[in-house]
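> forwarded from #structure-qc
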């Protein structure tokens, strides 16, 4: 499995390969290790959008937006 950085890097690679379901699972695992990490949160939201799962993307993208607005 690996730590947060390894998981996030693998997730980003899957996203670039357009393997969005795999990216979603890896971003979720990364967030289970570091739940406040906005880079993984954004990656998860973008992966849901790319997979056309818009309702699932909204909470993650909103969290990033709210964090950046502070």
């Amino acid at each position: 499995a690996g730590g947060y950085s390894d998981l996030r890097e693998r997730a980003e690679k899957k996203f670039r390969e357009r393997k969005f379901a795999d990216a979603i699972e890896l971003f979720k695992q990364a967030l289970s290790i570091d739940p406040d990490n906005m880079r993984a949160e954004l990656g998860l939201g973008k992966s849901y959008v790319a997979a056309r799962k818009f309702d699932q993307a909204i909470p993650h993208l909103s969290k990033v937006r709210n964090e950046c607005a502070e």
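QC bot note: The mean pLDDT is 94. The CA atoms of residues 48 and 55 lie 8 Å apart.
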